[in-house]
UniProtKB/TrEMBL annotation:
Subcellular location: Cytoplasm
EC number: 2.1.1.-
Keyword terms, alphabetized: Cytoplasm, Methyltransferase, Ribonucleoprotein, Ribosomal protein, S-adenosyl-L-methionine, Transferase
Catalytic function, reaction form: L-lysyl-[protein] + 3 S-adenosyl-L-methionine = N(6),N(6),N(6)-trimethyl-L-lysyl-[protein] + 3 S-adenosyl-L-homocysteine + 3 H(+)
Enzyme class, broadest EC rank: transferase
Species assigned in the record: Diaphorobacter aerolatus
Gene: prmA
SUPFAM superfamilies: S-adenosyl-L-methionine-dependent methyltransferases
Name of the featured protein: Ribosomal protein L11 methyltransferase
Purpose of the protein: Methylates ribosomal protein L11.
Cellular component GO terms held in the UniProt record: cytosol; ribosome
Amino acid sequence: MFELSLLCSEERVEDLSDALEALDALSVSVEDADAQTDAEQALFGEPGMPAPKEGWNRSRIVALFQTRVQAEEAQALLQVQDFFEGSEILALTEVEDQDWVRITQSQFAPVEITRDFWIVPSWHEPPAAARHCIRLDPGLAFGTGTHPTTRMCLRWITRNVDPARAPARVLDYGCGSGILAIGAAKFGARDIVAVDIDPAAVTSTVANAAANDVTLQAGLPDMAQGVYDVVLANILATPLKVLAPLLCAHVAEGGALVMAGILERQEDELKAAYAPWLQLEVSDREDGWILMTARR
Ligand SMILES: C[S@@+](CC[C@H](N)C(=O)[O-])C[C@H]1O[C@@H](n2cnc3c(N)ncnc32)[C@H](O)[C@@H]1O
């Protein structure tokens, strides 16, 4: 492929971008020509909202073409347009073919939860020390083991779900990728329900469970019925407060509630919200996040 880049003022960005698209560019991107210098301008936008400005004072437009002929034709045609005045061609260069799959995959290394428990993408060999291992690829749903909240829940599982004891009934409420439910299975839980309000998370959980030879039931929150020995909920403080009566009602006598997604400064408000049912305590901390647990 071939990349044509040009420099223009903010007023010319729209006309030139439209023209490049009309000339069969595969993609057109606009960036600050002064990025990484003292003259760099910060433009802040909200996802899904129109850009705050069409471009920067000095904008660099980069258009990608399938062939050199297309890129050269576009360059020649643009240069004779009146709206090209004041702009300049920066370069026309060939873009090397890249193995994007390999480049993307190389960014995801195995994640260590404890010395012998790892989250390992399918394209990696498990580390030699990994006695327990979850095979998980980054996908649409949250939960690849890289977030402190997920890691704290998994560490709790390693310490408290015991393969030698009776099969534990576990509820993963807000399962995302299903990582906690699968982690519980790896440590001996045998009766596992994983629920999420996001149907894409349910799909992801089913696929990840199958890839790990784990049997569980996954579905929307209504699937959670009755009481469980362990209730895991890594959501966020506000929904956790709203869910307090529901989550507590799912904790069996002698069972444990394990919650993450809570910032250190939210400890007291969570304790107060759960006080009518359970006494929460902080049992782990990482990067400003806390793990709050309670026993019935
Ligand atoms: C932070 S992710 C946690 C994913 C995974 N359990 C982990 O520990 O990495 C929170 C998940 O909770 C789900 N969620 C948010 N509010 C929920 C609610 N009220 N009921 C059920 N699931 C909810 C989200 O869709 C998301 O998948």
